[in-house]
Amino acid sequence: QVQLVESGGGSVQPGGSLRLSCAASGFTFSWYTMRWYRQAPGKERELVADIGSSTGTTTYADSVKGRFTISRDNGKNTVSLQMNSLKLEDTAVYYCYTAAGYWGQGTQVTVSS
């Protein structure tokens, strides 16, 4: 069955960095666009970044441009999100998503001083 397992969340001070990873299995990873979403308490889930299947074209939410970088390794079936210069407002549960239609369980990122 399809599995998306996120890791790398945690607590960090403003200005710090975290790297999230998502390990995928159960589908042909390289065929699909991969995305990171996040959901903060009381807010709707929002798209943070995505990366195309073959060309690796990336897009980012305006709120994270220049700070976050999405990448993928089709050989290892993983997608990552490098998050730098973290802000308080980046606090959320971060979810991995495949355009095949499946979600990971989420990983908590907390930015606090």
In short:
With 113 residues, this protein is mostly beta strands.
Would you write up a description of this structure?
- By secondary structure, this protein is mostly beta strands.
- Helix content is 0%, strand content 50%.
- The chain has no helices and 11 strands.
- Strands 2, 4, 5, 6, 9, 10 and 11 form a 7-stranded mixed sheet that branches. Strands 1-3-8-7 form a 4-stranded antiparallel sheet, with no helix packed on it.
- Strand 5 and strand 6 form a beta hairpin.
- It is globular, with a radius of gyration of 13 Å.
- The mean pLDDT is 97.
Derived from helix and strand composition plus strand pairing, the structural class reads mainly beta
Helical amount: under 10%
The residue ranges in which pLDDT falls below 50 over 5 or more consecutive positions are: none
Quick one: biggest sheet?
7 strands, mixed
What Rg is obtained from the alpha carbons, in whole angstroms?
13 Å
General form:
globular
- Count of helical regions: 0
Overall mean pLDDT stands at 97
Total strand count, please?
11
Distance between the termini: 40 Å
Q: Can you give keywords for this protein?
A:
4-stranded antiparallel beta sheet; 7-stranded mixed beta sheet; 11 strands; 113 residues; mainly beta
